[in-house]
């Protein structure tokens, strides 16, 4: 079951309350919770691929952390980035690897 998301309200609730509501309740509350149709693990892979392809690295960092929690291994993330390097761009892959190294570091 998808974890209840509050990032929208926590970060933008006072400034953009409707956007925060849509983020938390619709995107994460309704779409991400449709695990019968597509697992959270698969949604994480798709989301990380999309964000890397677009070069949206602040969001990619947050979603890589979610991907790790959703069961995406370091090796799978490395393969995702390597594969996308040829489609999304080499510099984007370098940036994504920097995030992945930090997130998947053994602490």
UniProtKB/TrEMBL annotation:
GO terms for molecular function: peroxiredoxin activity. InterPro entries: 4CMD/NDH-1_regulator, AhpD-like, CMD-like. It holds the Pfam family CMD. Transmembrane segments: none annotated. Coiled coil: none annotated. It comes from the Bacteria. Residues 17-101 form the Carboxymuconolactone decarboxylase-like domain. PANTHER family: 4-CARBOXYMUCONOLACTONE DECARBOXYLASE FAMILY PROTEIN (PTHR33570), BLL4600 PROTEIN (PTHR33570:SF9). This is Carboxymuconolactone decarboxylase family protein. It comes from Lentilactobacillus diolivorans DSM 14421. The lineage of its organism: Bacteria, Bacillati, Bacillota, Bacilli, Lactobacillales.
